[in-house]
């Protein structure tokens, strides 16, 4: 069920443009009426709207030379060219400038610029004059339009008013006044600039002299002329001392390692002479040679003689003497290394002391340099400011001669307009027609979407492989309340009767529905109008076919009472109980062409009666005697009677009250019928408002069809 509901919502999201167009087209005369009404209103509006005329003047902002750029820089306080142009445009839009125009043209005495509220007796005349002037400025400002031409130095200034000549006068006055207005501002600005520059220049000069004095005192205090040279000397000295300390330290480390190696191999001359520093020593070279010779001689003797031989003993003594001599010379060499080591350590100490002193001196020079640079920057800043102020003072003096030289030029004066600019009749009429047509179409569509459910119900029916076969309008019948409709006045209820005939025609012209002779009429909930529509459908079918109407609602039978048949007359329950014959239970009346089989006597268990096999035999007998059998059944969502009856009929027609039935309720009902394998031949929408009559257009092809093709009785 959830999947079906999801499909329904997806169908609701699809917009059928053809249907929307048909909805609007069905109300085309309403749209035409709205368009005509808009034409009338627009015509009256254009008659009442006073004419407005616009005149424009063209002003060019001239580019300045490089020399004038410096002057312009003073005038604009360092603004860029683009910023300066924007500033001048805002000046054109300012209230001060508008007030100058009002005063020049004396507009406060013009009736179109005076306050409409009249004079106030308790207000002083001077206060009233101020209020009138402010009001005139507001009107003037609202009607001025300043439009820069993109990519050019041109600015179009327009003015709109009630009179073409007045618009031209005001536009030309704007250009003229703006040039004079700017010159006055610039002249006053030049005077203010000159006074400001002179006062600033004296103060900057005093600061410059004070900075120069501080630099001289700083140099004398620390005794230097060029601090950078002193720092360079100290840095060079520091580099030399650092290198000397490094070399001395390496020599000390080398001597310590050599001493350690000699002491380690002192009693192993053979290993000792493998050390490069010992092997290359000149003092040990003779002892080394003697030791090698005695060692070789002792080695040869050892090969010839034994340890007790005199030659062996002599050679051994010579070898021992050579080793002792080497040991003595090594002791002497160690003493020499110790002396050299002490000297190098003393050198390291003295170099470190000198290095510390040089570092401290360099640090002091750095602080001195920092103070010096600080004083120097202060001096340079004051010097640069002094030079700039001197240059601007000279340029300001030049501006006194150029005060009348404006960078504005009137390229084109305003001319008197020949036609009003606010009455573009063709465009206004066109826009009014389009707007009214769109508004009318929107009203029609909104009315349709809000007032009708037919379109949504049709999509739900389509999703369950069924369709809407009838759309019956809502009617009111006096004197009939909560009773089925039997007799109708053709002059008052023509639409209702025609809708029933259209439903009948839809069934007869449908290849599948026309073959389904036995149909059950039911509804979703009670009071949906199934009894009335069952009677009217039977009446409509009886005009073409032999028809019988069966009241199968055994719980609340209403057909017999509506048609005036005696309550105790035999009916369906009598036939099922085998108490009456079929011919004795059928009622025939000359007032209507169809026959009627009422519900019969009241049963305590209607479902038990409807479940009897005899019901099928009764339906088959009716089918053999009549061309159309219409059974009215209880609501499907209230009781299960309709599900039982559906097993004996060809299809079920579902009556839907569009006023109280929701889209989900219809979907749930169709889902339950589908799960019970019940064939729904079609859906008849009941109580449809008149605003929804255009939905019947989808079945218009059936109304136009030749009814002679349908089977008749």
Q: What does this entry look like structurally?
A:
- 61% of the residues lie in helices and 10% in strands.
- The chain is built from 25 helices and eleven strands.
- It has helices at residues 2-13, 17-26, 28-48, 66-75, 81-93, 95-105, 125-143, 164-222, 227-264, 269-272, 276-279, 285-304, 310-401, 425-451, 454-463, 494-509, 530-542, 559-563, 572-576, 582-585, 606-610, 614-625, 641-645, 663-675, 700-703, and strands spanning 53-61, 144-148, 154-161, 408-412, 468-473, 518-523, 547-551, 595-597, 628-632, 651-657, 680-688.
- The strands form two sheets. It has a seven-stranded parallel beta sheet, sandwiched between helices. The protein has a four-stranded antiparallel beta sheet with strand order 2-3-1-4.
- The longest helix has 92 residues, at 310-401.
- The radius of gyration is 61 Å and the shape is flat.
- The two termini are 42 Å apart.
What's the short story on this structure?
The chain has 713 residues and is of the alpha/beta class. It is 61% helix and 10% strand.
Count of helical stretches: 25
Strand order of the largest sheet: 5-11-10-6-9-7-8
Report the major sheet: 7 strands, parallel
Low-pLDDT runs: 8-13, 65-81, 691-713
Q: Please estimate the helix content.
A: 55-70%
> What class would the helix/strand composition place it in?
alpha/beta
Dominant shape: flat
Report the oligomer: single chain
Percentage beta strand:
5-15%
Radius of gyration: 61 Å
Q: First CA to last CA: what distance?
A: 42 Å
The overall pLDDT average reads 77
Query: What is the total tally of β strands?
Result: 11
